[in-house]
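quick one: zinc ion bound model?
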Amino acid sequence: MNKAIFLDRDGTLNYDSENYVKSIAEFKIFKNTPEAIRIFSQSGYLVIIITNQSGISRDYFSKKELQHMHDKLKSAVKSEGGRIDAIYYCPHHPDDNCDCRKPGLANVRKAIKRFDIDQSNSYFIGDSKKDITTGAKAGCRTILVRTGIKNYRPEDIIKWKFKPDHIMDDILTAAKMITNKQK
Ligand SMILES: [Mg+2]
Ligand SMILES: [Zn+2]
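yep, here:
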């Protein structure tokens, strides 16, 4: 079986926005993201992005524009020597009550099946409570990164039903922690 790093997108790999990241111009990748993903790839992890993109059903941007953003991300990662193995996005509105919008597990389950992933040997990294809930429910270890727009206080996090296993400054710090641990 394979091990994977499941990654949220907005606020984890790139700057998030209160008004949605709607275009390639607004899609700004964090400086540390390509290096972090290279570390994961080189350490034998599959890298799989699981992202909610309800802006599509809200008509804020098209699937084509989203594809452009993801092409930009993939090429930035590739030039650093890393690899994004798959990107699963939920295009639905919260009111659609779909199973693929986090904390729904449909997209994670799809990836687990497709890539034969051992979730207990895998991590879910994200900047929001939803990501931590998704990862924990899927049986992964979870890391909350501090690069999002929400500023959770420790006294909030302590009350969550699913608490993160680790809280790290950013994805690169998380990558170094994960890969040091397994040596
Ligand atoms: Mg996020
Ligand atoms: Zn969905």
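The radius of gyration is 15 Å.
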